[in-house]
Structure formats: structure tokens, C-alpha cells
Amino acid sequence: MSEHFDIAVIGGGNAALCAAMTAAEAGARVIILEAAPKPYRGGNSRHTRNFRCMHRGPLGPLIESYEEDEYLADLLKVTGGKTDEGLARMVIRTSEECLPWMEAHGVRFQPSLSGTLSLARTNAFFLGGGKALVNAYYRTAAKLGVEVRYEAKVTHLAFDDDKVAEITYETGNQTHHITPKAVVVAAGGFQADLDWLARAWGPAAKNFLIRGTPYNRGEVLADLMDQGIEQVGDPTQCHAVAIDGRAPKFDGGIVTRLDCVPFSIVVNKNGDRFYDEGEDVWPKRYAIWGRLVANEPDQVGFAIIDSKAINLFMPSVFPPIKADTLDELAAKMDLPADQLRATVDGFNAACGETDGFMPTELDGVATSGLTPPKTNWARPIDTPPFYGYSLRTGVTFTYLGLKVDDRAQCSIGNRPVQNLWAAGETMAGSILGQGYLAGFGMTIGTVFGRIAGREAAAHAN
Amino acid sequence: MQTELIAEARRQAEICNACRYCEGFCAVFPEMHADGTFSDGDITHLANLCHNCRGCYYACQYTAPHEFDLNLPKALAEVRHASWEDYAWPQPLARAFQTNGVALAIALVLTTAALFLAIFALPGDGDGFYAALSHGAMVAIFAPAFLLPLLALAISVRRFWQDMGGGTPGWSGAFGSTARMTNLAGGHGEGCNYEDEDRYTQARRMAHQCVMYGFLLCFLSTSSGTVLHYVFDAPAPYPFWSLPKLLGVPGGLLMVFGTVWLADLKRKSDRHLGHAAAWGGEMAFIGLLFLVAATGLLLYWLGATALMIPLLALHLGAVLTLFLLTPYTKMAHGAYRLAALLKHHQS
After folding, report:
1. Cβ of B21 and A128 within 8 Å?
2. In this complex, which of B24, B59, B64 lies closest to A111 when CB atoms are compared?
3. ipTM summary value
4. Do A388 and A403 share a domain, yes or no?
5. Do residue A108 and residue B188 have CB atoms under 8 angstroms apart?
6. Domain B89-344 falls in which CATH fold?
7. Dihedral, B229, B230, B234, B240 alpha carbons, nearest 10
8. What tens digit of pLDDT does each residue of A159-181 get?
């Protein structure tokens, strides 16, 4: 079978679809090579829920305004300055025109979800979430004549000097070769390849849970880096958060989050505390806890609360382990009962006045003379029934990726690859050096997907 | 109540409550997220609030083959059907007719045969149809056949209302959302996912409203005839420029059009996103509504010919089946759904 395509897009998530639709609208004949089967199409976009968007006045579902400098300041806060400011500003500025473009391509928005009021000004929520967005884009892409191959695993890109000459991909046990004029890589990171993760992070990574798609195994990324395509981002790091320890190994998504830590004490498997649970509000601390738990024995933690705290946080999908005494709870959670009791007694004794307890803000209700301290929301754990959740490290994405310029183009040596562009998580390391800002991944994917599609189509035409 | 179905719906609702991505689609999710606890009454309420628009299924990141295996439209449809059977009195009738199209067809044959017998056994006393069956005989058959099942349904829905927690009904919200069928509008107003996977269309919403408004017009037509007969001493047959005809003819046409459309949509839709076992019973019910409307229109057209007698028997047989089985067929869903909406719009 001979197939002629102007552009091959490798990957099937938000960035890939934005690139494919943009290129098809420019008149190019486009094929999407998606590694996942149809029900799992869309990569990590399937699990997303919103898009962080600059706006100078009310826009779509977004209220008030959210301007470039504030957006950039928010980003710099979470990345600790490890940000390419030029690219970041370009993404932020372009995000404003993306929202109407997304609507024109089928995405529908909804008001900020209950429990997420703090994002109503900055983040536009997709009606139905990321899978609904992905579905809408596949429908629009189909109308534009984009061809889609599912379960199409790209194994190799053959180069001819500074040009991609041929793509090899497999479907089932068939091998295919195509020779498109231009290529867009939007195939995510490598976080679902636990062996790679263990080589990068250390053997502890084998105990991590992968929050997103099992299909982001980094095969294309590895193939390109092996051939000298320029890379960016810390190869040893991943973005990880603390999630419910009972979550599935892959693909647990949003419902595995666990928001109880600020109202709890967290112990390791020996029954000892290891960090200040009340350091800051949870949205600012869940990423730190992914790393903290990763450093404890067996990469597991246990959050313990009492009945006073059970209704103070969004429910996890898994019910807490419940017991009338701490000894019973220790037995149910396989913790050493004596040590757990000693830790709780020590913590309770260090708690002081609790009248100022305010669950929604830093209340300064702290322990005294305790190491490590708990600096906010420190109330004794003394009112049965007691509840426990296990915590594990949940990996969201990896930082290692392809280095691109402001036109999304990849490079080899010191020169651009003539016909290779990258978008989405595959190149997000070019902008985000560490940390994460809610909804920014979809912004990078949309902005760079559209640029990559436009540039690839211009090259192909 | 069937505890396994409730337990499965509760398992799924707890996953939904931790996700909340679908909040904007319909009334089910805001209701579900309001307090996050799911008693049997809460689950039954959610099940009857669900209009089976399927938006949440196609948007869901946790549908099979994912191990969470979410299919909320199906889980709620199964609880919903079970609740209609459980609240119905007598229950065996609901079990027979909700899911079984053949049972409905047999009932139709029996009622039509009974009407034939009545027409031949009883004398007529007037013009038009009354020449075949007297007004008195019609009232004697249809008044109890209409009112007694309605009473049975009212008792059932009252028990449902109490299980949901009772209280003051939210009349304007519930009637407003029924009149516009907002829960099939998808939140964005572009309709629901039904006949073509995740594509939003207004087809099912429109088809449903054709049937609903068509039925209401036909009901008003009959009511206006009753008023003309008793209050104004003006018995049937009525000319075209009269209330019964001006309401009944468009009503009948809307019902014919809407039922054909609904059946076609239902044929194209994925039956595993609903209560698959009830498919036959629901299709048969759509067929019954079609028959009621189509024979009514045909009677108007061919009422002066020799076909009048068989058409009249078939029409009255279909109407009698519809009335008698109101608490035990899909017809009951209107009352339960309205009650669920009255509860939802309470405060």
C-alpha cells in the first residue's frame, strides 16, 4: 500500500491534534500516528481538565482579567526561575487567541468546577474534561480530512543529513514506511517506561505510580536523542505528586488525588513523621510531597486524621481506612502500633491553642517543640473514629524533551532540522525546567501545536 | 430495591464525585456533588434525574477497558428501571411490560379484540363513531381505564417522593426544564450524544419534544371534546374548524413524526449505554404511541368509509392499552422524572 502524506504527526493528544488541524486547514494532507488504541487515544490530554489562559477582560468562561505579567509571575514562582522567559511570554501572549480558536474547533467550556473556585479567573475548564476535548478535536480533524492510525507505534525516524527522510511504524505485526515532507512530534514524555524512569531516578522509581497514560513510553524521544537531535530538561527528573497509595499503577488520573495531608500527620512505614504537613495550602505543596514520599522506605507514606478532619477536604475515590482506636488503625494499615501511638501522643502534646483553626487559610495553629514541626492546622488527633490513607508518589510527566525554538522547530548540532517540529509534553522542558502550573501543559500544547502545524504546512507547501 | 444495582451505581457515583469533570452536562452532577453522600434514596433520585444523554459516558476517562469501568448512563438506567418496577403496584405487571415488547403486543391484541366485541355486542346511539359504540359505553370503559391506573401511578410516585426526602416541590424549575428538555441539551445547548457516538445533536431532544407536545395536544383535544359534549351539549363528530380537531390533528402528526424519529434514533444508538434488556419494551412502547396517533389520524381521514369499524377498534384498543398500562410501561417515566426534577429544583 503506498500512502502519500505531506505531514505526519506522531502522537494523538492535544498538541498533536492542534498541529494536525492547523496543517490540514493550510491545505496539507495529514496523517496522525497514535500509539494508543482508540479508547485510550489522546495521551495525557485525556486526563486534563483546563487551559490556563491570559485575558485582558472577561473571555469565554473566564472572569475579570489575567494579564501577561501576573501569569508569568505565577509561572516563575513554581519553576523557581528555571524558565525560558522568552518562550514563556510567547506562550502566555498567544494563549488569549487560543481560547476562541479552541471553541471554533469544537471545544466547549464550563464554569469552574465545584471545589476549584480559586481557578475561575485563570483557567478555562473543558466541559466533560480532556477526553471531551480530544473527542471534539478528532471529529474536527476528520472533517478536515486528517487520517488517523490507532495502535500505530513509531519505531524509527530515518534522517538524511538534516532532514527526516522516512518514518517507520508498526501496527500489530505489520511494519509500515512513510515518507512525509514534514514531521511533527507530539508524543509526550517517557514516564510510562518504568525501566527508563528507574535508570534516571534510581530503583525507587519502580514503586512510583504513573498518573497518566501507559502509552507515553518515550520511544520516539529516545530514537531522536540517539540520533543527535538536541534535548532539553533535566533527564533525571519527573513531576510527581503524592496520591492515594491504592491508585492503579497507570492511568488513575484526577480521582486518585488525596487532599487530606494539611489536616493530618504523615508517618512512614516505621510510624515516624518526616516533614511539616502544615507548611502551606495543599495546591502549593502536593508536588513536594511526591518527592518526600519517594525518599521514605518503600516509597510509601500514611496520612492519619481523626473525625474532626474527615469532611475538610475533597473526597478521594478510595474510602479511608477507619478504626475506633489508633492500635486498630495501625493493625489495619500494617504500621507498628507502639510507634504510631508514640508519634501521635508526642504530636498531640506539642499542639497548643486551636481556637484559631481555619481550614481554608494559613492559620498559624502550630506545634511547639516538635521536630519536624507542623506549622499550620495543628490540632490533636484524639477524636475517634480515626482514619488513614496511604500515600504514594504519582508521576505526572517527565522534563526531558526536545529543544525547540520559538517556531517549534527541532535542531541537530547547531542547525535546525529542516522538516521536524515538536509540540506538547515532548518539548515542554524547553519552557518548564521544574515545577508545574495547573493548566499550563495544555497551554503549551495548544500554542506549540498550532505553531508546529503552521510551520510544517508552510514547509510542505 | 435491587441492592446490587444500587451498589454498582454508588461505586460509580463515588468515582464521579472525586472527578467532577462532567459537572456542566446536566442536573445529575450538581445534585451528586452537593453533599457527596449516596443513600439508596439519593441514588434512585439521581437515576431518575438522568435523561440518558450519554455526554458523561463519551467524555469519561474511566470507561472500559479502564479498570474503573465506568458506564454511568447504564448504571443509572438500570437503577431507574428497577425503581419503576419496585414502586409499581402490582409489581409483576411492571416487570412484564417494562422490558417485554411481546407482552405489550399481546395486551394490544386483547384490548383491540375486546373493543371489537364491544362494538358488535353493544348498540350505537349517535353519529360518527357513536353509531358504532355509544358515548355511554365509551365513558364506561375509558373513565375507569384512565383514572384507576393514574391513581396507581400517583401512589407509586408519592412513595418515590417520600424516599427522596419529600419537601416542597420546585415547580417552576422542574416544568421549565421539562418544557425545554434542558437535560438533553448537553449544558452547552448543542444537544446530546446518542445516535452517532460523541457527536452532539439536537435530534433526540427534538424527537422527544415532538412526542411529548404531540401527546399533550391530543390529550387537550380529547379534554376539549369532553367539555364541548357536557358543557356545550355539542357531541362529536366535530368539523375541522373546531377545538378537538385543531388540537388533535397537529398533535397526532407531531406524535407520528416524533415516534418514527425516536425509534430510528434508538435503533442507531448503542444499547449498552442504557438498560439493554429494556430495549424491546421501550421500542414496543414507542410503537404503541405511534399506533395511537396514526390510527387516530386515519380515523379522521377514513371515518366515513367501511374501514371505520376496524380502525375504531384498533384505535380504541391502542388507547386502552396505553391507559391501562401507564404505570407499568415507559409511560411512567414522565411522572418519575418530573418528581426527580421537582426534587432537584427544590430550593
Report:
1. yes
2. B24
3. 0.93
4. no
5. yes
6. Fumarate Reductase Cytochrome B subunit (1.20.950)
7. -40
8. 999 999 999 999 999 999 999 99
